[in-house]
């Protein structure tokens, strides 16, 4: 979806970085992270800043970039990026197809807007289909390249029935 709307692979990487979680970055670190030239990163950072999607500011001698949460399309872009990464789809499928899931939460660093590389979920319910959960979580790991930790809790018993870690 995002690939058909945005033709620059570098721009897609930057949008994913800045709009998938609250993050900041500077030119050289972004070039190293994406394994691209500083010039190609600079061009896209300038375009996104001129469009108002990113803001920049000096931190010492370094120019830092952040997603502009005041931009009129901020929430729409963040939603598109989240759907592209599959998190919305994962939660929706978890709730609909895993059995008697009463509540599903994304918790931990990701829920606080920090990408530590791990997405933590808590599922509360009974008779959760573990085989299908394995399939969904494995698929999500492949798509978003993040470790996924799922804690399953039985609400009636008030106990944890298992912790699944993928990635």
From TrEMBL:
InterPro entries xrefs: ArsR-like_HTH, WH-like_DNA-bd_sf, WH_DNA-bd_sf
SUPFAM superfamilies found in the cross-reference section: Winged helix' DNA-binding domain
Gene3D superfamilies from the UniProt entry: Winged helix-like DNA-binding domain superfamily/Winged helix DNA-binding domain
Protein name per the record: PaaX-like protein
Native source organism of the sequence: Rhodonellum ikkaensis
